[in-house]
Amino acid sequence: MRRLVTLLLVCLAMPVCMYAQTMQDFASRFMDDNAGDKNLECVTVGPKMLREIMKLAKEYDKQDVMSFLSKIKSVRIINGDSLAGEYRKKALALLENSGKRYARYEKDGSDEDYGDCVWVRKRDDKIVELVYVGLAKEKDFMVLDVTGELDGGFVDSIVDNNRRN
After folding, report:
1. Which residue has the higher pLDDT, 25 or 70?
2. Strand 40-45 vs strand 72-80: parallel, antiparallel, or unpaired?
3. How far apart are CA 143 and CA 91, in angstroms?
4. pLDDT per residue as tens digits for the range 97-121
5. Torsion angle defined by CA atoms of residues 143, 95, 147 and 156, in that order, rounded to the nearest 10 degrees
6. Could you give phi then psi for residue 32, rounded to 5 degrees?
7. How many CB atoms lie within 10 A of CB 78?
8. What is the chain's Cα-based Rg?
9. Rounded distance between C-alpha atoms, residue 162 and residue 135, angstroms
10. In terms of C-beta density within 10 A (0-12 exposed, 13-18 middle, 19 or more buried), how is residue 152 classed?
11. What is the DSSP string of the chain?
């Protein structure tokens, strides 16, 4: 009887796991929509590279960097050297037309407006994905897509750092 219940639970859990595996992050969806476009490239920084970066942070005793990095699953960067305005419109349309999947980021307790540059995806009121679309005034197109267990402080630091550069 115990085996039967276990087997039944596994069978019920499989579709949920399979559905989670097919969920795409924003970068994947955008690149799929623009397949064959030679002006775009997407670079992924995966867990292995993040671990290497964490080793460097440990070496230099950067606890705040390590705490951020330990929560990140992946970082994907999309960039294009031409047609920045067109790509930006496509990216924003994809974000806006994604139903309730993505929402513009609003800093807690602040009236600061990030405009249409910063979007987040939440699960159970926790940020699990950050999408930063480069500003309209920038010459080149750029999207930064970060997945993991992110908090508002992490999102603010990414945005503030990018504003300074």
Report:
1. 25
2. antiparallel
3. 8
4. 987 899 888 766 555 556 678 899 9
5. 70
6. -60, -40
7. 24
8. 18
9. 10
10. middle
11. -HHHHHHHHHHHHHHHHHHHHH---HHHHHHHHTTT-TTEEEEEE-HHHHHHHHHHHHHTT-HHHHHHHHTEEEEEEEEESS-HHHHHHHHHHHHHTSTTS-EE---TT-----TTSEEEEEETTEEEEEEEEPPTT-SSEEEEEEEEEE-HHHHHHHHHHHHH-
Handedness of CA 63, 69, 70, 71 (dihedral sign): positive
Q: Count CB-CB contacts under 10 A for residue 150.
A: 22
What is the distance between the alpha carbons of residues 70 and 44, in angstroms, rounded to a whole number?
Answer: 17
Distance CA 107, CA 68 (A): 18
Handedness of CA 34, 38, 39, 42 (dihedral sign): positive
- Residue-level length of the chain: 165
What is the overall mean pLDDT for the chain? 75
CA distance 141 to 83: 7
Q: Where does the pLDDT of residue 91 fall: very low under 50, low under 70, confident under 90, or very high at 90 and above? A: very high
